UniProtKB/TrEMBL annotation:
Domain of life per record: Bacteria
PANTHER family noted in UniProt: EXPORTED PROTEIN-RELATED, FLAVODOXIN-LIKE DOMAIN-CONTAINING PROTEIN
Lineage: Bacteria, Bacillati, Bacillota, Bacilli, Lactobacillales
Species, as recorded: Vagococcus martis
Molecular function in Gene Ontology: FMN binding; oxidoreductase activity, acting on NAD(P)H
Protein name: Flavodoxin-like domain-containing protein
UniProt cross-references to InterPro entries, sorted A to Z: Flavodoxin/NO_synth, Flavoprotein-like_sf
Domain Flavodoxin-like: 24-164
Length: 174
């Protein structure tokens, strides 16, 4: 069994260098495309305390979380990690994985799972996130990831299909 697990944020976001309001987070949109192509369940990691709608206020909070290595609380998820293959998605914030996703992965049993990371960004790709993911999940196999610029998510179906070829080939062998 495979699952798509993601954290996303709606509201003001940076899009092609401009602050715009989006009604659905870019990572959520990408998670939906992946889950649709895999025909699998999605699990959203939701913060107990929502991030502000304001992009600039959110950046201030994110920078503080990074400085303090915060562990933002999230609502518990029922049986999120059944199965060996996990697609883990998040926006790249300040070049890093959001602390809420890091906290989630630290708390859940992801050892010996096969993780396919994906992220949305506005120019930094994964940044330090893959390093952080490997550090948080040392007993898991972290496979090649997919980084999509947030402003291009709506047209990313072909990129997702190409990326999933690796998963489909690997999952048939295991």
């Amino acid at each position: 069994m495979v699952k798509v697990i993601y954290f996303s944020r709606e509201g003001e976001n940076l899009v092609n260098g401009q602050i715009n309001i989006i009604n659905q987070g870019n990572t959520k949109q990408l998670a939906k495309i992946i889950a649709s192509q895999l025909d699998c369940d999605m699990v959203e990691i939701k913060p107990v305390k929502d991030y502000p709608i304001s992009y600039l206020e959110t950046i201030d909070i994110v920078e503080k979380e990074l400085r303090e290595n915060s562990k933002p609380a999230y609502y518990s998820v029922k049986n999120p990690l059944y199965g060996n293959h996990l697609f883990i998605g998040f926006p790249t914030w300040c070049g890093s994985m959001p602390r809420i996703m890091k906290h989630f992965l630290e708390q859940e049993n992801v050892s010996k799972k096969i993780i396919y990371p994906f992220c949305t960004h506005e120019g930094s790709g994964f940044g330090r996130s893959l390093y952080e993911l490997n550090k948080v999940c040392p007993l898991s196999s972290v496979m090649p990831g997919l980084a999509i610029q947030g402003s291009r998510v709506k047209t990313s179906q072909k990129s997702v299909s190409n990326w999933l070829v690796h998963y489909k080939h690997y999952s048939r062998r295991n």
